[in-house]
Amino acid sequence: MSKVFALIDCNNFYVSCERVFNPSLIDKPVVVLSNNDGCIISRSNEAKALGIRMGEPYFKVKELIKRNNVHIFSSNYALYGDLSRRVMKVLRTFSTNVEIYSIDEAFIDLSFLKEEDVENYGKEIRKKVLKWTGIPTSVGISTTKTLSKVANHIAKKERTGVMYLNKNIDERLKKFPIQDVWGVGKQLSKLYIKNGIENAYQLKSVSNTWVKKSTNVLGSRTAMELRGVTCIGLE
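Predicted structure:
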């Protein structure tokens, strides 16, 4: 039986946490700043639409923020940590195998489900997390962790917020930039692009020999995972 992994990612997490306790911020442009109020570390979709970029120094966008009445918050990690724990607690009601990947992301094993139930189960996860914590999420599901990461990227643009990547996978991978593939950093993406590998499908299709010779065991695992072969288990 093949594995099924879901990646649950909290949308614009720090901003979403602020909105839980101040619902008047919903649909308004909001940014959260780093510890010393130096950089942008979380943005609402409305703030993204204004051209405010992740990691941008605050002083560079100060005028833009002021001009567009963007709500600004200093980071509150005690609050974010508390809400993260609540989200993870909800996820454990859906699977006994949960890997907390970061403060706002977790992989869960859904291999126990029947194929026809997977997508609806993903929708239930999203619905319950929102109801119990107030945090909106995106849910990407597929047969490997790397493919579930791809699915999660796609889910963010879906109306339902859920993507079960089990059909037309190659077509999706052809449109997926190599630099967005999980495990492919800046330097590695430069190497791939230099060798004509610009999307996830091209990495999936390249020979194992070339990947092993040109990168390392992690690069080889990523390519295998894009082919649907589980190489990276839950931790």
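Summary: The longest strand covers residues 5-10.
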